Amino acid sequence: MALDLTSTTTLHNGVKMPWLGLGVYKAREGTEVINAVKAALNTGYRSIDTAALYENEEGVGRAIKESGIPREEIFLTTKVWNTDQGYDTTLKAFNESRRKLGVDYIDLYLIHWPVKEKFIDTWKALETLYREGQVRAIGVSNFQIHHIEELKKHSDLLPMVNQVEYHPLLTQKELLQYCKQEGIQLEAWSPLMRGNNLDHPTLTALAEKHGKTPAQIILRWDLQHGVVTIPKSVREHRIKENADIFDFELSPAEMDQIDAMNQNHRFGQHPDHFKF
């Protein structure tokens, strides 16, 4: 279990990945994303999650470089976007992301969405990058069980991570259980429901009881379910607050209370109905 901000989970290929990281979706390229990443690294975060789609890889790379923290101490994730999927185009997109980030390798490279007719070839490109040592781990994002089962038919190598929308209103219990059985690390994007429903009575009551914020209660719930989480913020005080979740524990009954909030409600797109 995660004991502090430096705690890691071990992926099925032996690579260690921090339980808590900073997401930079919608963090503007330039000063905003640079300052957010620097604030996170100064706070003790060692995992940064970006994507080609976010158009802020250059700022992320610059912040990492200027932080003075050795590259090998930072776990860096980026993703191939839908329009770049396919074997050759994925390899090209990877090189472009790496150039923008200004790094020699990526720690985790993900397929952003399961684009039909393309994600198998995209996965084969990721396998090539992995075997060449250009990425330390490869995975998927927004994949349902049937997408992963399809991948299994064409590859001996299972994704090391599946990053999906995951929060108290979308607990995805079947997917979580499946990933645990397969040795795939589930990772939560939008863990704080894009700021919605943080005033839910269950969350506010638990926050009051533990002397924490509703957001901190949710992030702790993620970790106790064995889910890596990457809350996004560009404000230093919020980045610090999101990391202050290692000095308390939710009881099994409290975990059940939060689980009971589930409505199978998505704030993002459904992977099976995404307009690719």
Automatic annotation (TrEMBL):
Q: Which UniProt keywords apply?
A: NADP, Oxidoreductase
- Keyword NADP in the entry? The reply is yes
Q: Specify the protein name.
A: Aldo/keto reductase
Q: Where is the active site?
A: Y54
Entry's family note: Belongs to the aldo/keto reductase family.
Which species is the source of this protein? Thermoactinomyces daqus
Entries under PROSITE patterns matching the protein:
ALDOKETO_REDUCTASE_1, ALDOKETO_REDUCTASE_2
Against PANTHER family, the record matches this protein to: 2,5-DIKETO-D-GLUCONIC ACID REDUCTASE, NADP-DEPENDENT OXIDOREDUCTASE DOMAIN-CONTAINING PROTEIN
Listed GO MF terms: oxidoreductase activity, acting on the CH-OH group of donors, NAD or NADP as acceptor
Q: Tell me which residues are marked as the site Lowers pKa of active site Tyr.
A: K79
Q: InterPro entries attached here?
A: AKR, AKR5G, Aldo/ket_reductase_CS, NAD(P)_OxRdtase_dom_sf, NADP_OxRdtase_dom
A Pfam family found in this protein is Aldo_ket_red
Q: Which residues bind substrate?
A: H112
- Could you tell me which residue ranges the NADP-dependent oxidoreductase domain spans? 30-262
